[in-house]
Amino acid sequence: MAKQGSLDSASTAEDRVEAKITPIVIFSCVLASTGGLMFGYEVAISGGVTAMPGFLKKFYPDVYASTQKLNTNSNYCKYNNQSLQLFTSLLYLAALVATFFASYTTKRLGRKKTMLIAGVFFIVGTVLNAAFHDLALVIIGRILLGCGIGFGNQVVPLFLSEIAPTRIRGGLNILFQLNATIGILLATLVNYGAAKIKGGWGWRLSLGLAGVPALMLTLGSLIVVDTPNSLIQRGKLDEGRSVLKKIRGTENIETEFAEIVEASRAAEEIKNPFRNLLKRKNRPPLVIAIAMQVFQQFTGINAIFFYAPILFASMGFGNNASLYAAVITGAVNVLATIVSVFLVDKVGRRMLLLEAGIQMFLSQIVVAIVLALKVKDHSNNLSYGLSILVVVMVCTFVSAFAWSWGPIGWLIPSETFPLEARSAGQSVTVCVNMLCCFVIGQVFLLMLCSLKYAIFLFFSAWVLLMSLFVLFLIPETKNVPIEEMTERVWKKHWFWKRYMDDHYEGDGVK
């Protein structure tokens, strides 16, 4: 039996090597990954908008008044307002709830239609954000945008992992994160320009231009093919076989087709997919998915991108300088993510995660030391040279995150769950990610006010912890076919292999 298993594995590997990198796969992945563009734009746009005087005057006059009293308010505390933070973080609370509905549509309606739903939510939310004068309607728009993020972040990584050939699955999946970084950069550029518009209405332009990526995702969802995994799971075997031949560029797809059919059969036997996640054999990918989302957010990265202009202003940068520094970090974010596209399937997931942990830890320590020594509560004492050092260290941190925890935090969960648990597992992944985004978005300004420079020490402690987690508990998944993770990854890992024994009776749960 062992010999036969090895022959089957070799046969599978040989079959998959023949799979070509076809234009339809590249085209579909590029279109689908615009969901990441929308996500990134929304992550970054609110930080710049909430720093614009015109927006604050209209909706948060108390905060605006606070920002003008520089002699009576700590640099670290002048933007601290729970209502203002809710404008940013409500997006992620809505996404948290929406992802569970997206789990159902992803499984029952398919990946393609779920992307369409996300696009519609984005468009309606954008209109409400940009066109109305009432704060309540703007908040409703934020909720709808959050629903779009919940649906988009649920379906796009799954779509990319399922449609991509094994040998470039990592690179194509990272297109989602690459688009997210491009969205962040575009948002910072838009905010930089919109802040200079006379009349105080630039915030409307910032929020309204979200309609461009929203429209791109909506149109893209109408054009792309659905994944063979989704089609076969919904009983469309002939269509699934036809699409598989088309995207692989070969007639020799029977091994992969049989694997998907078998995985689909197993998935159909699952009546409660979320309860199925708690089965012993699903614990390794579930624990890793949850842990990676917590660690990804508690690196402090979204604190930087949510509130980059505010953060740099608190460090002592002027308004224009803070927006300019945010643009620089956004550009670094994009370039470093491109690095990950080319490296993730060559050097592997673990190597990038471990190297980045060291780089992020050291850069945060340096920023904390500079701020502790030079930035006081009521004065801006950063010299030109130290300002450059802070920006360089923040960029060092951002680049490390961008080629590691940013894309790989989404990649590993999307490729490690078995088909019967994949949709539910991705929902939990998105849910935890959005919950952490909400928490960080809601408390960051309060933490900045309370901890001051020590907030970077707080995040660096998390970076150290997550690096140890990678070292001991995250397996390497590069070049492993998505339906063979159990046999080739989990059953061979020093710790997780104990959860792969269906007859284990240690805790009575199977």
Structure description:
This protein has 510 residues and is an all-alpha fold. The protein has one domain (11-500): MFS general substrate transporter like domains (Growth Hormone, Chain: A, Up-down Bundle), CATH 1.20.1250.20. It has 25 helices and no strands. The chain has helices at 2-17, 23-32, 34-49, 53-59, 61-68, 82-108, 111-131, 135-163, 169-194, 202-208, 211-223, 228-233, 237-248, 254-268, 273-276, 283-297, 301-306, 308-314, 319-343, 349-374, 384-402, 405-416, 419-451, 455-473, 485-488. The longest helix is centred in the C-terminal third of the chain and has 33 residues, at 419-451. Belongs to the major facilitator superfamily. Sugar transporter (TC 2.A.1.1) family.
Fill in the keyword field for this structure.
510 residues; mainly alpha; Growth Hormone, Chain: A; globular; disordered N terminus; membrane; Major facilitator superfamily (MFS) profile domain-containing protein; sugar transport
- Radius of gyration from CA coordinates: 23 Å
Domain module count = 1
Contiguous uncertain segments of 5+ residues: 1-17, 504-510
Mean pLDDT: 83
Please describe the biggest sheet, giving its number of strands, its sense, and whether it closes into a barrel.
none
Shape: globular
N-to-C CA distance: 24 Å
Strand content: under 5%
CATH fold field value: Growth Hormone, Chain: A
Briefly note the structural class of the backbone: mainly alpha
Strand segment count: 0
- Helical residue percent band: over 70%
CATH architecture heading: Up-down Bundle
So how many helices?
A: 25
SSE order? HHHHHHHHHHHHHHHHHHHHHHHHH
CATH class: Mainly Alpha
Fourth-tier CATH superfamily name: MFS general substrate transporter like domains
